[in-house]
Structure formats: structure tokens, C-alpha cells
Design brief:
18 strands; 20% strand; alpha/beta; six-stranded antiparallel beta barrel; five-stranded parallel β-sheet
């Protein structure tokens, strides 16, 4: 299932009529050539209709972009640029827009060869603000053809997430379990983001599941599960029920997506789920997430949304984990101290029962859910995918609506260490620089819940820009500040 969009960026060059149009023409051509040489040329479309100098040109460019299925826009200032027309272009384009500008090429031609786009970018940004138009502007938006090509490539994952959100439906099942108010958040911000939500009863899900009894597709799904699990298939007796549940969710998605192209699920997994369905849904959740359909646990709607954003940005599998437990001193002393440049407070274990895709586990096996089995028959808690999470770079992040309906987020780069967890579930030993302070002054101070999304790689730069673009105030985006940089709420005398 293709659950994130393909991005096709239309590159439109603009020119102020008192500057040579040839500057924008030639610089646009050089930019497109530079991008195609280094990156996938299918990502971009060079708008040949006109160099935008007027409002009429702007309309012509918009029509051409639409006719060629462009869903993202780069406004390229080949020279100073027409501040009105270029910003109206972004205003009327139905998708994310980026503004970049051309650097001067040579000191040998600073007469007719000088474009002054460095100056024009200032006027463009001012006019965007006047019109309340959102646009992505890189950290340093003026460059050579090769540098601007790199900027466009960095825009691709940002654009992919923004386009995806406008066509996303979150499907949820059931209210949150008792004592999980931490996952509660107003859904108004979903509508503000352009996201649709469909809230269902878990009884609706159970009815749909029962209707899938004897589904002729079940044996093929079981075979696929067996192939994925290999020697880790320790609970083969539960696979037919899990296959039945997987088909239930996939069919529900197709029948309920409506006019939306992309879907994510906030699922119910306890307390009555196990006794009524006869298993836990963790493994199925992991399989759907591995196919690009993120599924959050415990009806965590903003967790599912966060996972989806990470999937779109990274173009890879993500997971959702509890920021769960400290690393014991004996493990830290034996496996981390002196080997990695982290204090014990920089480390913690990220855990969930079994929702992490097998693609992101160093090893895995199908087991029962130990915590639930403490109060329930073990056979009703089968269906978790257990194993240590693969070592490597990660980004821990979350987008959240506060109780008073404000968007808030956090982002932290770190890594999963190649350290055995000695524990159960889908779990890993995580290390984030200055995690102890980040935990106290961002996670606790910001009232974030215990669930955090994990992208496998360092994607903080793109995530930060996505959060800004969709309306999160920069003061509400927390990150792990380095030692010596005090958080606003941090006691200076501590």
C-alpha cells in the first residue's frame, strides 16, 4: 500500500522587469541541470511557460504547474524578482512552497550579470508576511546552482509531510484505557492541520472482526507471517486470529478512507481487547507500520499522527515507544561507561509491548505479553513481537495538542546503543545527549505523554521545518539543549 505521496516539485523562476530576464532563464536551467545530475530528476519539473514578471505570468505558471501534477513549488529568484507576483504565486498554489535565490556567479560580470537576488529575498519574505502566506525558506536561501539543488532536495521530505497531512485520515477505535489520560488531547488541532478523524467504538471493530471469520485470504496472510517470523514463530496457534485481525483493519481502511488518500490508525489494545478478541494486536500493528501505515497503541491519536509525519519525512518505517525505564547501573557500568560518551542520565530504555516492525529489530520472536499475563490467562495475551531494537541513529519526537488546544512538539537526536536490554517487549537502550535535563525541562515541563515517536535516522532538521510550517510556534518546539545552555525553566543555581 502506498501511504505517503510522491512529490513533484515545480520550479518557477521569477524576474523583475527592470533586470535582464536572461539571468533567470539561464540560472533556472543551470539549477535544473545541477539537480538532475545529483538527485532524482523525476522529483522536479521545470516550468517552461514563462519567467514570472507579472500577475498574468503568475496565473500562466499556476495553470502549467497544475497541468503537470506538481504538488510542491519552488519559487526561484534568478534576479531581484517581482515581490507581488512571486508571493501571489505561493499564495494561490495548492501545496507547500519554498523560496530560494541565486548567488552571483563571477566578479567579471557585475553589470548586466548582477541579479541582486540577495536583496530580492528580503522583499519576498516581507511580502509573504504581508499576505500571511506560509513558505519554507532555508537557513541560508541564496546559493549557486549546486547549492540551491541541495536546498531543493532537503525540501522534498518537508513537502512530502505537508502534502500528506492535507490528505490524511486518522482512524481510531475505542476510548483510551482507564488511567491513560496522558494520551488524551483535543482533536480540534487535527482539523486545523487539515487532518480528518474517524472515531469508532471498539465494538464496531469487534463486529467487523467477527465478520472476517473464515476469510479465504487468511491462510495466505498466515504464510506471510510465518515467513517473516522464521524461527521466532513461537506462537503459531495464534497466527490465524492475527491474520483475521490484519485483514479486518486493511478492509476497514479501504472502506472508510473516504476521499482521503492516506491513513493512520490509533488502536485499542487493552483491557478488554485480549479477553474478547483472544490475542493482543501488537504484531499486526507492527506489520501495518512496516508497510507505511502507522498504528499507535492505546488510542494515542497524536502518537499516530506523529508516526505518520515521521514516515513521510524519513520515507521509512517508524515506531512508537514508551519513554520507559532507566538503565540500571550494572548495565551502564558493564556495557556503556567508558565505551560511549554518555552519562547514565543520558540513557534510558524505550519500550512497547511488541508494535515495532521486524524490519527495525535486531532479532525478534512472537511471544505473550508479560505485563498483561500477570492478571489474565496467558493464552489471551499472545501476539507481541519481542526483540531488541536495531542499533543506530534515531530521532525521538512528538507533535501534541495541549489540554488548552495549542500545538506543541519536541525533537531530539540520539542513538540506540548496541547493548543487550536483558528485558522483554520491543525494546532498546537509547542514548540522547543531555537526556536528563531534556526529560525534566521539555518532556515533564511541557506536559508531554509517555509515548514518543521514533524515526530511524537523524531527521530533526526536516521535522523542525515541518512543525514550523504547519503552525507550531518555535517557542513550543523543545529540543535537547547542549550542556551550558539553560532551559527557561531550569534553576540557574541547581
Amino acid at each position: 500500500m502506498e501511504n505517503i505521496p510522491k512529490i513533484k516539485i515545480g520550479i518557477v523562476a521569477v524576474s523583475r522587469d527592470c533586470f535582464p530576464e536572461s539571468l533567470s532563464v539561464n540560472r533556472r536551467k543551470a539549477l535544473v541541470e545541477a539537480y538532475a545530475k545529483k538527485y532524482d530528476a523525476a522529483n522536479i519539473y521545470e516550468c517552461p511557460v514563462c519567467i514570472v514578471e507579472s500577475e498574468i505570468h503568475m496565473v500562466q505558471a499556476l495553470e502549467d504547474l497544475k497541468a503537470n501534477d506538481c504538488n510542491a513549488l519552488v519559487v526561484y529568484l534568478g534576479n531581484f524578482g517581482p515581490e507581488i507576483s512571486e508571493t501571489l504565486l505561493a499564495k494561490h498554489f495548492d501545496g507547500p512552497a519554498m523560496f530560494i535565490a541565486a548567488a552571483e556567479e563571477s566578479g567579471a560580470d557585475l553589470g548586466n550579470g548582477r541579479g541582486d537576488a540577495y536583496c530580492g529575498m528580503l522583499n519576498a519574505s516581507y511580502n509573504l508576511a504581508l499576505r500571511n502566506v506560509k513558505a519554507y525558506i532555508p537557513e541560508y536561501p541564496v546559493g549557486t546552482a549546486e547549492e540551491c539543488a541541495d536546498m531543493i532536495e532537503e525540501f522534498v521530505p518537508i513537502a512530502r509531510a505537508i502534502v500528506a497531512l492535507k490528505d490524511l485520515k486518522v482512524i481510531s477505535f475505542g476510548p483510551r484505557p482507564l488511567n491513560f489520560l496522558a494520551c488524551n488531547a483535543p482533536i480540534k488541532q487535527l482539523y486545523n492541520l487539515g487532518v480528518e478523524i474517524e472515531e469508532n467504538s471498539e465494538l464496531d471493530l469487534f463486529e467487523a472482526f467477527k465478520k472476517h471469520e473464515g476469510d479465504p485470504r487468511i491462510p495466505d496472510v498466515v504464510k506471510d507471517m510465518e515467513a517473516e517470523l522464521g524461527e521466532g514463530n513461537l506462537k503459531p496457534e495464534v497466527l490465524p486470529k492475527l491474520a483475521q485481525y490484519e485483514l479486518t483493519l486493511l478492509d476497514w481502511i479501504e472502506e472508510h478512507r473516504g476521499y482521503r488518500k492516506y491513513v493512520t490508525i490509533a488502536g485499542k489494545c487493552w483491557p478488554a481487547f485480549q479477553t474478547q478478541f483472544g490475542f493482543v494486536p501488537c504484531y499486526v500493528n507492527s506489520r501495518l507500520t512496516g508497510r507505511g501505515i502507522p498504528v499507535s497503541c492505546e488510542v494515542d491519536i497524536y502518537g499516530a499522527l506523529s508516526e505518520f509525519i515521521g514516515t513521510a519525512v524519513s520515507d521509512d518505517v517508524v515506531t512508537l515507544l514508551d519513554i520507559n525505564n532507566t538503565v540500571p547501573a550494572d548495565i551502564y557500568d558493564a556495557d556503556i561507561k567508558g565505551k560511549y560518551n554518555y552519562t547514565q542520565k543520558d540513557t534510558f530504555m524505550g519500550f512497547h509491548c511488541g508494535n515495532t516492525s521486524s524490519k527495525k529489530l535486531a532479532f525478534c520472536s512472537m511471544k505473550y505479553q508479560l505485563i498483561m499475563a500477570r492478571t489474565l490467562p496467558e493464552e489471551s495475551t499472545q501476539g507481541t513481537l519481542e526483540g531488541d531494537i536495531v542499533p543506530g541513529d534515531i530521532t525521538f519526537y512528538r507533535l501534541q495538542s495541549t489540554a488548552d488546544n495549542k500545538l506543541r512538539a519536541y525533537i531530539a537526536h540520539g542513538e540506540v546503543l548496541p547493548v543487550a536490554t536483558r528485558s522483554f517487549g520491543g525494546i532498546g537502550v537509547f542514548a540522547i545527549p543531555e537526556m536528563g535535563r531534556f526529560y525534566r525541562h521539555v518532556l515533564i515541563e511541557g506536559n508531554f505523554p509517555h509515548h514518543g515517536a521514533v524515526a530511524f535516522g537523524h531527521y530533526g532538521k526536516a521535522l523542525y521545518e515541518v512543525f514550523k510550517y504547519i503552525g507550531v510556534d518555535v517557542s513550543e518546539i523543545g529540543y535537547n539543549q547542549p550542556a551550558g545552555v539553560r532551559y527557561p525553566t531550569e534553576n540557574p543555581f541547581a
